[in-house]
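Standup notes
- HV: blocked on the assembly model, inputs below
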Amino acid sequence: MTKALIPDGMPDVPTQVFEKFLQDLGDSGASVELAARLRKTLLVDKAFTERALKEAVLAKESLL
Amino acid sequence: MIRVESITISEFRGIRNLALDFKGRNYAICGPNGTGKSGVVDALEFVLTGNVSRLSGEGRGDISLKQHGPHVDIRNNPDKARVTAKITIPSLSKTVIIERSLKTPTTAHVTPNDPAVVEVLQQVEAHPEIVLSRRELIRYVLATPGKRAEEVQALLQLDQVEQVRVGLQKIANSCEKQLAPLSTTATHACENLLRALGLSKMTKEDALVATNAQRATLGLTMLGDLTESTSLKDGIVALEQDKPQRIPKTQALADIRAVHEVLAEIANASTSTLVADVALDLNALACDPMVSAGMKREAFYTTGMEFIEAAACPFCDTPWDLGELKKHIQAKIDYLEEVSRKRLAVATKIAPLIATLQKVQTAINILVGYATPTPSAAMEVAHNYSVSCGTAVEQLIALLPLAGTITVVTNVPIVPQAVLDAIDELDKVVSALPEPTEQDAAREWLTVAQERLEVWRDAMQKQEVAKEQAQRARCVSGIYAKTSDTVLAGIYAAVEKDFASLYGFINRDDEDNFKAQLIPSMGKLGFDVDFYGRGFFPPGAYHSEGHQDGMGLCLYLTLMRHLQGTGFTFAVLDDVLMSVDVGHRREVCTLLKREFPNTQFIMTTHDPVWLRHMRTEKLIEGLSAVQFRSWNVDHGPVRWDDRDVWIEIDDNLKQNDVRAAAALLRHYLEYVSAELCHRLRAPVEFRGDARYQLGELLPAAIARLRKLYNSAKDVASSWNQREIVDLVAARASEFARLADASNAEQWQVNVAVHYNSWDNLGKEDFAPVVDAFRDLLGGFTCPDCNEYLRVAPDRETPESVRCECGKTNVNLRKKGS
């Protein structure tokens, strides 16, 4: 996992927001797959377009 | 993140060739306006980020970095315009050289070029806010709430946070928007299935009873359950393969009745009332040209926003600034908010008409299906009407153009007679069909029921998937909105507190209980500050310009601290404190030193007094400053540098230009004398306008040093330090000789450097004067480090005369004092 850390500093503001959001999403009972996809989109790929978010949010999930 | 050790600037902006050695410490660049200070700031920004904000962005017109970044004399050769910086990265314990030329501004040559170094430099590049100019300072303080929110958002990179919020919200909205048509489709499919099953409501038990009754007629096994994969006609498919298709009479008659019902509904009074109401609203909208045009524009902008994803225009490939363009278009959409509200109100009223038309279309399509593959001319008419219903639905959903929608709405209750005739004709044809045998009827029943069951199952499945997606998208959007609000509220609260604490510190003499409020609301950021306990007001309401500058600096420092945390190790403050009053400069220096001990500040100022404050408060060390005295287009900034000044005077004399040599000598002596008086704490007759003459300063500095040496001798004697007494005496004697040689103390009668006598002096007359003053100034310096001596401390009782290197340290405290 790549973190958008300011070197030798604290995470930047978007990273703080995204990390907290993913934590809250996990706590809400959302699927692990959904959280993983959003983590990749927001924190690894840093893709913030509607298209990228749509792919992460609406991807077909396994029934298990 | 980084500290800058040194910078070398070549042919960049107004600078021809300049090297500054920051040594990774705070550093000040002082000089009158137009001497090249901002050129250094631009060079720093350029080498670290590849951009110069002064030459790019909003309001810069035809000015560009590539064209106007190089020195004017080499503007066609941007490769020669280069800036090299030596930096250290504390976290990596590495020293790195970065070099950029204006030929390829975005490409930096980095040595060593390892991934960890590159990552840090990318972070630096992403933070152009390391440079703060006064123009930017004001933007934080005096901007409108909307604009301030943008500035603060840009600084904290909240645009990404906002972009995700908007994106997730749009996805949730669009998912929910799909639910209504899918629900309509499922409802229609269910109604068709119920008609086939001969039921009024859908329950598994009733469906099984009805199905098994038909299956019993055909001698098929009874179905025990109705699951997702159950086929109602299980067992009859193989038997029916070779039989020709025929119209299932009973079912077809039921479907014809359904069409009659729905056509009656479309033509009834309540539909007509609704149509009249909607038409009235649409006409009102169409009559208002602002609204009409606004709706078109809103639709255009909203559609356009969805396509702004690449870095260039999809039509002409012209590169664009993605963020700026989106912001620009969003502002237009926001402006059309009222239009949007009216559009939504009409769309809500139109929704039942859309549902009815869709119902008509579905019902007629079933009838048309009975006439396939060879429909009669009459059924062609019915088919065309069904298609026109579909087109009408599309128009009603699109809403624009309004004229088209008004026509469509007005025509909704009108069912063409030819369509009614076609249905009547089909009714007659079907009624005339021979009654099927009991087995045929059962077979037809099961076939049609199975077809409609499959359509219903498909519609239900799509609806379920869409529902799940809509729930998921809304849940994600909701959690994100709540989380980001919480995080941002926390950040704003912390910024508020930190800002008030920093500003309260620099104004602790009269505003030590200062408070501030950052009030985020709907994309805006209000900023009110306490005014002496009388309430909260915008910063520009009652506070002076100097106080506003102080606020701007404090808000900037606070935001940077929150943005970069311990990574806030470098910042350039470009003349940002020009209007801070003298009384608060000391506090600003202390603030920077105390609150940001790990941040290297490069500061520019046109005010030499400010520079002295920085030195006095130890914000900068003795050698950590450069003073520019002038600038010219051929050579760029000219600094007050002993070596340079004496070389320049000698050069003037070589060319027999006594006037230029004397002017420079006088100008330099004025500058140095003020510095010497400050360092030695020499008493000078006070002038309210601070416009001291050389004759008032230099003799005072000489007299002061003589007196200090005399005191030092007495002090050394009091401590019985014979050697020191002799040493000080020797220095004092040598200094007296130099002072006498310059005759400076008799300034008022010394014509040698009086400007009105210059014309009368020849080169040979003036050269000894130059030598005498050069030697005299040498007498004020430490023989080891060549820096000017100073009295320590700079206030209260003098304790010593010392230099920067510490090798000269003459005690001024008498034994027993």
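- HV (later): unblocked. Residues 647-811 of chain B form one domain. The mean pLDDT of chain B is 84.
- Next: hand off to the docking folks.
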